[in-house]
Known about the structure:
With 210 residues, the chain is an alpha/beta fold. It is built from nine helices and five strands, in the order E-H-E-H-E-H-E-H-E-H-H-H-H-H.
Amino acid sequence: MVQTNATPNPTVFVIEDDASTREALEQLIAPAGYEVSSFASAEAFLDAYRPNGPHVLLVDDRLPGISGSTLLRRLHDAGDQSPAVVVTAYATTPMVVEAMRHGALTVLDKPCSEHQLRESVRLGVEKSQRDYEARQSRQEIATQLEQLNEKEREVLSAVLDGVPNKQIAKQQGVCIRTVEARRSKIYKTLGVTSVAELTRACVLGGFISA
């Protein structure tokens, strides 16, 4: 139904103040084919952060300045829903709850196994990829909907309401062939072949509510 552009290579943002640990994490993650971008503090990350494509945050909670869980809260409050993996040697129930509430998929005890870390990052990347592709689809469909003129959008609304072509023609004061032509244009513009596909596209594009 919707042809999206190729998904960019996923990025793992490593936010860890200890240089040797950062290097070890980079060496652990890079072989999986992800881009890795590392920062020694949450502040440095925020200064450079320009989300572009699927990504996951791998963040230590105990950082100089802004903590990892506070970073997630700030991103969340700004509308950023980046998935994150938090690692900490000082897990407390309130910290874990706050981190999970603001985007952490999991909180790992430090030190954790390499397998556990890789798997957590993989799950975060997969979630981000799904979210990214859904956003791309929504944007593309919204752009396609904007290509329809007022009369075509009226036909679209009527079709979604289950109104037959003959009745739509009467409502618009046109012949049925005109309605059929407008309906055909709608289907072609949105790249759909059925009312079911049309409905899904309009929900995804925000034309109607789910």
